[in-house]
Specification:
Low-confidence stretches: 5-28
CATH topology of the largest domain: Immunoglobulin-like
Order of helices and strands: EEEEEHEEEEEEEEEEEHEEE
Structural class: mainly beta
Mean pLDDT: 84
Strand content: 35-45%
Keywords: Signal
Shape: elongated
CATH superfamily of the largest domain: Macroglobulin (MG2) domain
Radius of gyration: 29 Å
CATH architecture of the largest domain: Sandwich
CATH class of the largest domain: Mainly Beta
Distance between the termini: 65 Å
Number of domains: 2
Helix content: under 10%
Number of helices: 2
Number of strands: 19
Length: 270
């Protein structure tokens, strides 16, 4: 049995839909605990599934009788704005503990809540929410992405590959996730070839850090033994756009955009 929250809601359990009345003045604490993954990962345009466990706690365990139920709601939120995309429930269960299969979980935030309710009518259509507040659990569903290196340590998920040149750290106990980051310094390698220069081209290699500026790189290239040109004749572009001397390697995300870096020799770029 299970239920799903998302753009496409899928209900695969037989649950009783109840009209809820306001809690009375003798309401008790939530009385329910929810246990579920905090995060799930899905491929692009796919949905996830997981298991939600609920457990009634004191004082409701000793008082449990056929008139009491556990009801669960789901709100599907936009991860960026927090705006509600969809809502589902309540889904009500007569057992004081159980496991519910959640299906069709779309990428975003799923806020699950639960409360103890009491059947106050012969036909089961009117339920009184006894909990003073609902138990809550937030589940985030994220789309699998390629690993995006930064200068801070980041976890490497099991499906992610590590680009060459990164510093990788393995857990000492052999369990848990790998972490990786861009090392400080790292080696920039750039093939230089231009009609202004003699020969068939060469590889320019330079140890740089996130704080290295474009001006630093221009100076190093201009003074290279294979170049030996005035600084005003050495320029750089990234993705076809000129870059300014004050911009840093980190600001330009140069580690991840090395293939977009080009050298231009001659008059100043416009």
């Amino acid at each position: 049995m299970g239920f799903g929250f998302g753009v496409r809601l899928l209900l695969v359990l037989l649950a009783q839909h109840c009209m809820m009345s306001p809690a009375d003045g003798n309401a008790s604490p939530a009385g329910v605990t929810l246990t579920a993954p905090a995060q799930l990962w899905v491929d692009e345009n796919k949905t996830a599934h997981g298991v939600l466990h609920y457990q009634v706690s004191e004082p409701w365990v000793e008082q449990w009788n056929p008139s009491l139920k556990v009801c669960i709601w789901g709100d599907f939120l936009d991860p960026g704005t927090g705006a509600q995309r969809a809502a589902s429930g309540p889904f009500c269960f007569a057992e004081p503990q159980g496991a519910v299969n959640m299906q069709a979980l779309g990428a975003g935030l799923h806020v699950l809540s639960a409360a103890v309710v009491q059947d106050r009518s012969a036909d089961g259509e009117t339920m009184l929410e006894l909990s003073a507040e609902r138990a809550r659990h937030t589940l985030r569903v994220d789309v699998k992405r390629d690993f995006a290196p930064t200068y801070a340590w980041q976890p490497v998920r099991e499906w992610q590959g590590v680009p060459p040149g990164l510093e990788v750290r393995l857990p000492l106990d052999g369990s848990g996730e790998r972490t990786a980051r861009i090392p400080q310094p790292w080696q920039l390698q750039l093939f230089v070839q231009d009609p202004h220069l003699p020969g068939d081209g060469f590889f320019f290699r330079q140890q740089i850090t996130g704080g290295t500026t474009v001006g630093d790189l221009r100076q190093a290239i201009a003074s290279h033994r294979e170049v030996q040109l005035p600084l005003e004749l050495v320029w750089m572009t990234l993705g076809g756009a000129p870059v300014a001397d004050h911009e840093t390697v980190k600001e330009l995300d140069l580690f991840n955009r090395q293939k977009e870096l080009k050298l231009v020799f001659g008059s100043a770029l416009g």
